[in-house]
Amino acid sequence: MWVLVFFDLPTDTKRDRKNAAAFRQKLLKDGFSMFQFSIYLRHCPSRENADVHIKRVKLNLPPDGHVAVMVITDKQFGMMELYYGKKSKELPQVSQQLSMF
């Protein structure tokens, strides 16, 4: 499973910029990777694990702005086509993680 977090946060004031930066840092600390400036993603081995990370995103929501969370399967993620300019690029490698219960 892949958890994608999309956001559009205000950056008009110093406080807004601080809140936006803190939200990004919390995503990184929770194991998300920046896909684009306002899109972060994280691979999760199961739906239960994805739910844990979604709950953390919800706990760290900034006071203003729009945040969306989407969960997609590995197969759906694998069908994504990435382009940098006109050149196709490979999808990022999934790190192999060992989950212990």
Describe how the helices and strands are arranged.
Elements (H helix, E strand, L loop, with lengths): L1 E7 L5 H16 L3 E4 L2 E5 L3 H13 L6 E7 L1 H5 L3 E3 L2 E3 L12
Antiparallel strand pairs: 1-3, 1-4, 2-3, 5-6
Q: What do you see in this structure?
A:
One of its GO terms (molecular function) is endonuclease activity. This is CRISPR-associated endoribonuclease Cas2. It comes from Reichenbachiella agarivorans. The protein has 101 residues and is α+β, with helices and mostly antiparallel strands. The protein has helices at residues 14-29, 47-59, 74-78; strands spanning 2-8, 33-36, 39-43, 66-72, 82-84, 87-89. The strands form two sheets. It has a four-stranded antiparallel sheet with strand order 2-3-1-4. Strands 5-6 form a two-stranded antiparallel sheet. A hairpin with a 2-residue loop joins strand 2 and strand 3. The protein is globular and about 40 Å long. It starts with a strand and ends in a 12-residue tail after the last strand.
Task: Quickly list its features.
single chain, 101 residues, alpha+beta, 4-stranded antiparallel sheet, two-stranded antiparallel sheet, 6 strands, 34% helix, globular, metal-binding, Virulence_VapD/CRISPR_Cas2
